[in-house]
Amino acid sequence: MIELKDLVKTYRDVHAVKGINLKVPPGEFFGFLGPNGAGKTTTIKMLVGLLKPTSGSVVIGGYDVSKEPLRAKSIFGYIPDRPFIYEKLTGREYLMFIAKLYGVDMKVAEERADEFLSFFDLMDAENALIEGYSHGMKQKLIISAALLHEPKVLIVDEPMVGLDPKGARQVKQLFTDLCRRGAAVFMSTHSLGIAQAMCHRIGIIQKGEVIALGSMEELRRMAKKDQEHLELEDIFLELTGDTNLERLGVSMEHPAA
Fold first, then answer.
1. In what order do the strands lie in the sheet with 76-79?
2. Three-state SS for 75?
3. Which of 46, 93, 146, 200 is 20 to 30 Å from 153 at the Cα level?
């Protein structure tokens, strides 16, 4: 469903992404992790067509994102980490606007908007201007808009930002249900607990290269710590070499109070 082929992005002398090869099949929840500056956001921007690869390709649902952008974009939803939203529209107007962009039948769009507004407890605010929404309400609206056309692929960058515990649980439920219906979900996040709980496989990128890829069991073996209950945080720090906190004056055995 998602395929990255020898994907490269270079900015003059900076190699942001260095030849990534990756496949995410239908029905898989894939986690994409990495330290700050590792190349996650650059990769995602190439995935959704906001950046053109220096070389290589991104294929979604059989469509090359660079060569057939409209066909590719028609089958995926995108939730960015810093979404732009038209705040002078009401919540319902915004959903209808997005539905028209995707060519969704208006009757179907109204029904699905009702479902999402009700699910996220936004019915009381559906006719209020978005500029008056809280950050969490805006995030729920963005997520609703990304799912309105029932995408076969969902690409997500830090989806839980600004959500309260109930909202975060609702979003987890939505994403899990989407995978069960056969969609592929590609999620980048710094929330390692969420990634561990939800993802079938996880890829870890560092300095533009995927340094580890697999299930939790496979990642444990890569970290040479094949313990059944080892957490993703420990694996991540081991594989990325970020366990040496002593250089910052912090002891791992005796953390500062």
1. 76-79, 153-157, 184-188, 29-33, 201-206, 209-214
2. coil
3. 93
Helices (H), 123-191: 135-147, 165-180
Distance CA 247, CA 257 (A): 17
Q: In what order do the strands lie in the sheet with 14-24?
A: 14-24, 2-11, 55-60, 63-64
Three-class SS state of 204:
strand
DSSP track, 93-116: HHHHHHHHHTT--HHHHHHHHHHH
The β-bridge relationship of strands 76-79 and 2-11 is unpaired
Q: Are strands 14-24 and 29-33 parallel, antiparallel or unpaired?
A: unpaired
Domains, the chain, with CATH or none: 2-240 (3.40.50.300)
β-partners of residue 29 are: 185
What DSSP element (H or E) covers 6? strand 2-11
Q: What is the pTM of this model?
A: 0.89
* Residue pair 225/238 in contact by the 8 Å Cβ criterion: yes
